């Protein structure tokens, strides 16, 4: 009995703590990867695979039936010589400039006004500015088509009554049609971006404004020295997202003007749509999509570095 009693403690000592905890540690190492595996699987399935398929498709000529014909870089060389694609790039650049240099500052000014002390009906104004973003693009296009109609439009009726101006073809004149699409872009997006700026303004500590007032800062100086630096992360996010959305604009020009008159409002996204679903040039459309992706990705990275997105210092 005494020998058995002495051997049992020795057997317990022989079992090291690491050997007993090893299954738990192995499970602990695998568990995080098991939890994030569904995300990476879906990301691979719905993002990486389609992008790689588009790259391969852009090197072929395919009409949707039969086997694709390998053409190499011919689609890309043809795009560089395609005047329609050049026009679409120029129009998309106009939409980007409107989004970044008009819509974003307008949203900031509106947010600053809504954040002012003593403003009555603040919630009503916020709702009014945000409503356009939740409306269907088809409804928006229908309303603005009625407003801008040459013969029966409300805008022409008002201009004729007040200034005696004749009927203006807002959607049939190239420059006016581009302005009309840009105005709808402004009207639809400004309220949505205002929400981001308003959230940023509400997070600025009041002590900073009080300190600026003690230093004798006026309204303009407080805006430039306190508000703008505090809103830098929000502004960076809004600028980048506005650029990406405007570069891929499709709804407004398609529903209002169908890209016309001529190609004066044609965007790159509409060019891709026409090439793929009207002319069945899927390889050509894929090449245009890859070029658009490369341009958007490159400029987005430049904006990220310029605006210091993701930097803590």
General shape: globular
Helix content: over 70%
Low-confidence stretches: none
Count of β-strands: 2
Measured between the Cα atoms of the first and last residue, the distance is: 71 Å
How does this model look, in words?
A hairpin with a 7-residue loop joins β1 and β2 (69-70). The longest helix has 42 residues, at 17-58. A two-stranded antiparallel ribbon has the order 1-2. The protein has helices at residues 2-14, 17-58, 74-81, 83-114, 122-134, 137-147, 154-163, 174-202, 206-214, 219-230, 232-247, 251-257, 268-278, 282-306, and strands spanning 60-61, 69-70. The mean pLDDT is 87. The chain is built from 14 helices and 2 strands, in the order ααββαααααααααααα. It has 313 residues and is mainly α. It has 2 domains: 2-43; 83-306, Orthogonal Bundle (MetI-like fold). It is 76% helix and 1% strand.
In short:
This protein is mainly alpha-helical and 313 residues long.
What features would you highlight for this structure?
single chain; 313 residues; mainly alpha; MetI-like fold; 2 domains; two-stranded antiparallel ribbon; 14 helices; 76% helix; 1% strand; globular
């Amino acid at each position: 009995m005494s020998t058995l009693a002495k051997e049992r403690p020795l057997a317990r000592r022989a079992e090291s703590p690491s050997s007993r905890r090893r299954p738990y540690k192995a499970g602990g190492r695998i568990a995080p990867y098991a939890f994030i595996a569904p995300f990476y699987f879906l990301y691979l399935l719905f993002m990486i695979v389609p992008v790689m398929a588009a790259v391969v498709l852009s090197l072929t000529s395919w009409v949707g039936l039969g086997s694709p014909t390998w053409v190499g870089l011919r689609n890309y060389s043809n795009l560089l010589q395609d005047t329609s694609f050049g026009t679409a790039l120029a129009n998309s650049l106009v939409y980007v400039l409107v989004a970044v240099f008009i819509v974003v500052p307008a949203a900031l000014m509106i947010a600053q006004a809504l954040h002012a002390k003593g403003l009555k009906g603040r919630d009503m104004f916020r709702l009014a500015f945000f409503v356009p973003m939740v409306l269907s693009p088809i409804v928006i296009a229908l309303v603005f088509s009625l407003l801008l109609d040459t013969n029966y439009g409300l805008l022409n009726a008002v201009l004729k009554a007040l200034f005696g101006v004749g009927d203006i073809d807002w959607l049939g004149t190239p420059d006016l049609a581009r302005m009309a699409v840009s105005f709808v872009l402004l009207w639809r997006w400004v309220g949505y971006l205002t929400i981001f700026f308003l959230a940023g303004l509400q997070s600025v500590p009041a002590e900073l404004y009080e300190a600026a007032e003690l230093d004798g800062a006026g309204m303009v100086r407080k805006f430039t020295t306190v508000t703008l630096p505090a809103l830098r992360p929000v502004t960076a996010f809004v600028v980048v997202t506005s650029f990406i959305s405007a570069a891929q604009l499709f709804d407004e020009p398609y529903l209002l003007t169908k890209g016309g008159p001529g190609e004066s409002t044609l965007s790159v996204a509409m060019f891709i749509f026409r090439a793929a679903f009207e002319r069945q040039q899927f390889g050509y459309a894929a090449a245009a999509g890859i070029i658009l992706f490369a341009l958007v990705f490159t400029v987005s990275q430049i904006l990220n570095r310029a605006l210091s997105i993701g930097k803590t210092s």
